[in-house]
Amino acid sequence: MSYLSRHADWKMASRGEIARMSSGHPVSTIRQECLRIGANDLKYLRKLSSVLKNSGSKDAKLRAEAEAFLKEVPARVGIQKRFDPEQAEAAREQAIDYILKLSR
Fold first, then answer.
1. Nearest to 10 by CA among 30, 28, 39, 27
2. What are the structural domain ranges in the chain?
3. Measured between alpha carbons, how far is residue 24 from residues 29, 31, 96 in Å?
């Protein structure tokens, strides 16, 4: 964290430009990378939802866990613990695990 402001922390990207120009070419910023990662996370959640709809009668316990995960993870990662990067990474890995297990 910066000594000047909590908003100057390099991991926080609530404000600022998405890209900067350097030698006439756009260069992505940390904010753009955060937005890209967040968009990918949403795609994983959407894919998990789709896999759940199409998985039929596969392992009922696993399906119930994945459905509960889909209901609670947006609030946990996006609201309750939004400043903890480990929460987003753990949720991403868990979503991928559920997708792979339910797709078999």
1. 30
2. 6-103
3. 15, 20, 38
